[in-house]
User: What shape does this take?
Amino acid sequence: MAQEVPELREVVFTPLMPVLASSQLFSLEQITLEWIKEQVGSQAFDLGLWTFQQGLVSRMEPHGFYLYGTVNSSDRNKTKPYTIEVALTDGDLTGVCSCSLMYDSVIATGVLPRLNSSNIPCKHLAAVLVAYTQRGTPTAETTRDPATCVCPVTRQKLLAGSQIFICQNCGTSYSPEGWEFLQEVDRGRCCNCHTAGTIQPFTLSG
Assistant: This one.
């Protein structure tokens, strides 16, 4: 005796789709200021935004998934600009800046690393990304005051016209009190990239 097969009614089959992380993008056109901040961190973002608004980004060239840039130093005693290469790789941000100690080895291999604790995003890289989002805009208009950078040690605002101390390796900036604290408790090492001998005095221009 044949066994009856129950009839399936109103059954909807939904194909399983991979779930993408909200931070993943697949086109440079999707880049926003909020995404940049998420990728590089608030400290590098604030410094990168300030760097862009000071007109220090001298070149910004998109090519497919790649973005090439040149950023002039905020230190007037330095004439050599920084070179930046950024790309979207499998939806994540990868890149390197010539201020990084690993720049030469990265360029030699031709493979851009992801931004993480061993490849810390700097203000130059952030500035190029900001410049890309502001392309075609005569004046970069944002809701963020360029003078709202904050010392990561003392949480003091770093205001235009004041003396600050900048890590030449990663671009992290400190108030005089913050730099004094690092000298006392951590042998003058940057609390962001943990390198020594890279922090120099600088006066923020108005």
Summary: The CA atoms of residues 152 and 174 lie 7 Å apart. Residues 8-22, 137-148 have pLDDT under 50 and may be disordered.
